[in-house]
Design goal:
This protein has 20 helices and 18 strands. With 545 residues, the chain is α/β, with parallel strands linked by helices. The protein has a domain of 164 residues: Rossmann fold. The chain has a six-stranded mixed sheet with strand order 5-6-7-3-8-9, sandwiched between helices.
């Protein structure tokens, strides 16, 4: 068990959170959520001992081992992949290295030989002889090919390093597992494997993530960092979100009787329990919900931006046609080859690729940002596209002293300050925040500004390149709803499973040998035998690796 007793963290006059009293028990996975800057990662550092709280204590049951997913992708560059994974159980790794050093020393003393024998006994008790095979199995399950297992970590690319560090954290089934954004840079297949692994995990898992699907799949509890407090709720992210929305509506309607409100909540919990039946954790989750004390539940203080794309013009029948599109990068690598693509009315197409450059290249061409390509594309006369690039720095690199009112005014037909202020307010820039300089905005604030720019244009065709980057859960949820409700066409890419699965009705994957083009949801695409065979053909040996 892990217990947090009256913990507070304060930096100068700023109190991040205080009076935190929580207990984390085996068999549960706890998803830590909160707005950007609320203190989620700081809370994990306090739990791990990396950071001392201003006051209070964190206590672990004696003899239990904690593992933390490393955020330093270069810390193990001089070690082999295999050694790096086994280092996840540091005591086991140290024993292994010490005894092997004695065996490899031809001049070892009798005392050292006796020491090796002691180490051998302890090594066996820790099931050390299975260490390499267990590490290899973890690596393979995470998609790290056997040919990489004894290479140095420095020789791996970024995505492979992430998988190695993830294997390190999971190695040896630690009693307490702490992970900050474990799905970042993971492909869909690896994320799916990790979801299943953690759903079956019998020890304590505490995870920070902006991936709602991941939180829904693995979490039995939500730990909410909000307005200087940290509170724990039973259920996954969707249950927490729907509950907070229901409670907000109930509070707004003050005339409802208490018993009527209680019955509404009980009905909601019953429906949620029934809908959770496909989860491996359904039984334990249902038992937890049955013990839920409604009086302990509180309305969330979360604020959600208003994201709604409203087309000024209904699109006609001709949307977009791409013919023989070919594009190379500056190194001459072929990104797109003879691409043909035709949009139909109402389609929302998710573009996938193992090469992110290829997707961005396509979007830059369709938006008019890039004119150096072969082939052609043509929008219908009624189509008015708007583009959200992955790299939006060009929009903020001009007069960096410009405040947000003047910045957004550039893109608005209505120049009136009260209108601009109102629009910024709906995007959570209230009060004095509208006078922030565009040059000091955070990544998430810049994306919200770009969303405002797009909404003011009232387009009927959206091009969105990783739109959830830098956004918190509240903004991602609002964006997801806006994309679902949009009546025009969308072409987009994202690492957010829920957005992909709930928005896209057509999936196109750019491969080295052409396009895989399927009219299905993202979830169906991931688990389709037909698609799996097509990928094997298109990627060749790469798919098998």
């Amino acid at each position: 068990m892990l217990s947090v007793n009256d913990v507070a963290v304060q930096f100068g006059k700023r109190v991040l959170f205080d009076e935190v009293n929580l207990k984390f028990v085996k068999g549960n996975c706890y998803g830590v959520i909160g707005a950007n800057g609320a203190g989620k990662s700081t809370f994990l550092k306090v739990l791990s001992g990396e950071l001392d709280g201003t006051r209070g204590s964190v206590d672990i049951t004696p003899g239990e081992r904690m593992a933390v997913l490393s955020q330093n992708h270069f810390a193990f560059d001089q070690h082999t992949v295999m050694d790096t994974v086994i280092m996840g159980h540091r005591h086991l790794y140290d024993i292994m290295k010490e005894k092997n050093a004695i065996y490899d020393n031809p001049n070892a003393t009798e005392a050292e030989s006796l020491r090796a024998a002691e180490l051998e006994g302890e090594f066996g008790e820790m099931n050390g002889w299975m260490a390499e095979s267990d590490a290899a199995e973890l690596l393979s399950n995470l998609g790290v090919h056997e040919s990489y297992h004894y290479k140095l970590v420095k020789d791996l690319d970024g995505s492979e390093r992430v998988k190695v560090l993830l294997a390190q954290a999971l190695f040896g089934a630690p009693d307490i597992l702490l992970m900050d954004e474990p799905t970042n840079d993971l492909d869909a297949e690896t994320t799916d494997w990790l979801c299943n692994f953690l759903a079956d995990y019998q020890n304590i898992v505490i995870v920070v993530s902006h991936d709602r699907h991941f939180l829904d799949m693995v979490c039995t509890n939500v730990v909410d960092v909000d307005f200087g407090k940290i509170r724990m709720f039973t259920g996954n992210y969707t249950f927490w979100y729907e509950t907070s929305q229901l409670l907000s509506r109930q509070m707004a309607d003050k005339n409802k009787k208490v018993e009527q409100k209680r019955q509404e909540m009980m009905d909601f919990i019953a429906r949620f329990s029934a809908n959770a039946s496909k989860s491996k954790q359904a039984t334990s989750r249902k038992k937890a919900l049955e013990k839920l004390n409604l009086e302990d539940m509180q309305v969330s203080n979360r604020r959600y931006p208003y994201i709604a794309f409203k087309p000024e013009r209904e699109p006609g029948d001709i949307i977009l046609e791409v013919q023989n599109l070919t594009k190379r990068n500056n190194e001459g690598e072929l990104l797109l080859k003879d691409m043909y693509l035709r949009f139909n009315k109402g389609e929302k197409i998710a573009i996938l690729s193992r090469n992110a450059q290829a997707v961005t290249a396509l979007f830059n061409i369709l938006s008019g940002e890039d004119t150096d390509f072969e082939g052609s594309f043509q929008y219908g006369q009624t189509i008015s596209p708007q583009y959200l690039p992955n790299d939006n720095s060009a929009f903020f690199s001009g007069d960096q002293d410009m405040n947000l009112i003047d910045w957004l005014r550039q893109f608005s037909k209505d120049k009136d300050e009260s209108f601009i202020r109102g629009f910024l307010g709906r995007m959570l820039f209230g009060g004095e925040e509208v006078f922030k300089r565009s040059g000091v905005l955070s990544g998430g604030e810049k994306v919200r500004c770009m969303m405002s720019k797009i909404m003011l244009a009232n387009p009927n065709f959206l091009i969105l390149d990783e739109p959830t980057n830098h956004l918190d859960l509240e903004s991602i949820t609002a964006l997801n709803n806006g994309m679902q409700e949009f009546t025009g066409n969308i072409i987009f890419t994202s690492h957010d499973y829920q957005i992909l699965d709930s928005v896209a009705n057509r999936i196109i994957e750019i491969t080295p040998k052409g396009l895989i083009d399927q009219y299905m949801s993202y979830g169906e695409y991931l688990h389709s035998e037909k698609v799996h065979k097509l990928k094997a053909e298109m990627y060749g040996d790469l798919a098998m690796a």
